[in-house]
Amino acid sequence: MGGKSQGGFTLIELMIVIAVLSVLITIAIPNLISARMRANETSAVAILRTISAAQGEFRSKILADVDGDGAGEYGYFAEMSGAMAPRSSSVAVQPPILSSHFRNIYEGRVKHSGYYFRMFLPDVDGIGLGEANEGGTPGSVSSDLAESVWCCYAWPNSGNGGDRVFCINQQGDIISTNNEGVNQGYAGDVEPEPDAGFVNASTDNSILGVLAVSTVGTDGGVWVPVQ
Question: Which residues make Cβ contacts (< 8 Å) with residue 40, sequence separation at least 6?
Fold first, then answer.
């Protein structure tokens, strides 16, 4: 009687299979990381647009009016998300203008989809004041300037979060940079200064200038408009 054929792989066949899988993994992993980074960047742009709309609503409803002149002021994440009462009120905004995700503030920033987001409002000299560590105003926000000025940055929370860095202000236009400028390299705790994406700033860290659209910002990087 003939012998029965033995199932399974030979050692050589196993080595070939492992080699093929190794090549496929080597190709696939960078592509997956790249795809995730592009998705994070797309999400960051969408979130900035949501923030811009929320700022418009917050101001138009006069939810913060510290000087009592009847003109609404822009807000911080904690104020717009209902995490704490706006500066001129003792009652939190209900219903919130921003989702509850923006209540999770750590060191003045919010983490979402591979990116950090930080809001800046001006002091009396126009210098951008980042949100307080646990949310809300850090103090000395100018009531007059906060009626017309704000800006927000989004940068990768790690090296694999994304390539680009984004900025938006009260004009509603989003600009981005490839994060390769001389004073850039933003990721994690290395974040943009308030005036990083601006030109013609009156003083250091002022957010009263104009955005660096298709030109070099104060951080030495080239910023371009996002369509």
Answer: 113, 114, 115, 156, 161, 162
3-state secondary structure of 19: helix
Give the CA radius of gyration of the chain. 24
- On the 0-12 / 13-18 / 19+ scale of CB atoms within 10 A, 131 is buried
Task: Please tell me the pTM assigned to this model.
Answer: 0.85
Backbone φ and ψ of 225, nearest 5° = -70, 145
* Residue 119 token pair: 């809001």
CA–CA dist 116, 130 (Å, integer)? 13
Joined together, the tokens standing for residue 149 give: 């000025």
Sign of CA dihedral 122, 126, 128, 134: negative
In the chain, domain spans: 17-225
pLDDT mean across residues, the chain: 90
| 131 and 105 Cβ atoms separated by less than 8 Å | yes
Mean pLDDT in residue range 30-39: 76
Centroid of chain to Cα 159 = 14
Q: Which neighbouring-strand residues pair with 156?
A: 115
Alpha-carbon distances of 103 from 79, 83, 115, 147, rounded to whole Å: 9, 5, 16, 23
